[in-house]
Specification:
Elements lengths: L1 E5 L9 H16 L4 E7 L16 E3 L8 H19 L4 E4 L14 E5 L3 H4 L7 H15 L3 E4 L2 H11 L6 E3 L14 H10 L6 E5 L8 H10 L7 E5 L13 H7 L6 E4 L3 H10 L2 E4 L8 H8 L4 E4 L4 H5 L4 E3 L4 H13 L1 H15 L4 H16 L2
Parallel strand pairs: 1-2, 1-4, 2-3, 4-5, 5-6, 6-7, 8-9, 8-11, 9-10, 11-12, 12-13
Length: about 375
């Protein structure tokens, strides 16, 4: 079976969509030897270190909007060029691994689309312009025409059914998994080294993820500011700070200073090479997000045996199980109490560290790839 995948996110390999595409292609090669996956990308992004995921050779296409770049090229690629390319390559099935399906596709080409979340339909601040609103309307209509919609969690399934109106029999949950790179043990000297390089000492709280509105990082800062002054802690916030849209990206360093905790908070970006060591070195991982399609960052913290305090919203309860302390992300005093309790209770931290890896092990990329191949096969049956 030949499957054509829209590989636009080869241009953005460090995003969640880019990581999903890479993990899927890499694991297809291991668990589905009879599948010929053909990733097609608009233009040629730089080849990743170590070659293309799974050894698959991408097909590179061009659009009339290449000189313009950006959104115009992306939409033309999704709606016109990629569907035609999938038909020309003789694919049995097409897969758009993000919320960008074509409204019209070649006759006889079954279409699978993965919708990780529907954030712009839930949080108005993510509709940043009339063009974004128009694009969301386009892909929402297109999703109704897909043969099968894959979602990351039961929570995302409920949102797709409620907000897009896709029939339930055409929506299937396929869970994602932690990055296998965080699962390998890290030597004690590597833990000491990473703390020294990032200027951290025990106990320290770690946040890793986006810094946009839904991630709710201001609540974490306010919660830490509520802890008794004598409570020892540091916080490292890993993410890309942005100041171009204050409504969507709060000024976190400024807030930390206003709360009087600026000296205890460090901001930066932890690259993949340091991620496992930072997660394992942290005393506590806190993730107060108000909406997640699945929540891979706290899942990776569980895989490392790091105690987790997180939100009790959207997909997080079903993914975290009983391995994390969960609180209402809108209740800042409750968040502060949970953080203080875990920081001050070694037995609780030990219990959470014990529960984390078995919970994370319930989710594997091998199972994700197998269930995705099953999805391809299901749309081919008469």
């Amino acid at each position: 079976m030949r499957a054509a995948l829209n590989a636009h996110f080869f241009h953005h390999p460090n995003t969640g969509h880019g990581q999903y595409l890479s993990h899927l292609l890499r694991t297809f090669a291991a668990v589905a030897p009879d599948l010929e996956a053909v990733p097609a990308c608009d233009g040629a992004p730089p080849a990743p270190a170590g070659g293309w995921p799974g050894g698959w050779s991408p097909v590179f296409g061009r659009t009339p909007f290449d000189p313009l770049g950006g959104d115009a090229r992306k939409v033309w690629w999704e709606q016109v060029v990629w569907p035609r390319a999938a038909a020309r390559m003789g694919a049995a099935v097409g897969h758009v691994p993000y919320f960008g399906p074509p409204l019209r596709r070649p006759e006889g080409l079954p279409l699978v689309v993965t919708i990780h979340d529907v954030i712009p339909l839930i949080i108005p601040e993510y509709i940043t312009s009339p063009l974004v609103r128009l694009y969301n309307g386009l892909v929402s209509r297109a999703a109704l025409r897909a043969d099968l919609v894959l979602v990351d969690s039961e929570a995302s399934k409920r949102d797709v059914l409620r907000l897009l109106g896709v029939p339930e029999e055409r929506v299937r949950v396929v869970y994602l998994a932690a990055d296998t790179g965080v699962l390998a043990p890290v030597a004690p000297e590597a833990l000491a080294d990473v703390k020294a390089r990032y200027g951290l000492s025990d106990p320290f709280v770690f946040y890793l993820g986006g810094l946009d509105k839904r991630k709710n990082v201001p609540a974490l800062l306010r919660a830490l500011a509520l802890l008794p002054p004598e409570t020892p802690w540091q916080l490292y916030v890993s993410g890309r700070l942005r100041y171009d849209n204050p409504r969507l990206f709060p000024d976190l360093p400024r807030l930390a200073e206003e709360l009087g905790i600026g000296a205890r908070v460090r901001f930066g970006f932890v690259p993949d090479a340091d991620k496992a060591a930072m997660l394992r070195a942290a005393t506590l991982f806190v993730f107060p997000s108000i909406y997640e399609g699945i929540g891979l960052d706290p899942l990776e913290a569980l895989a490392c045996g790091t105690p987790v305090v997180c939100s009790n919203r959207s997909s997080l309860p079903e993914v975290m199980g009983d391995a994390a302390v969960m609180v209402d992300p809108d209740d800042t005093p409750a968040l502060a109490a949970a953080i203080g309790r875990v920081l001050g209770d070694a037995d609780l931290r030990h219990d959470l560290a014990r529960r984390g890896p078995p919970q994370a092990a319930k989710f594997t990329w091998e199972e994700t790839a197998r269930r995705t191949v099953q999805a391809y096969e299901s749309v081919l049956r008469p």
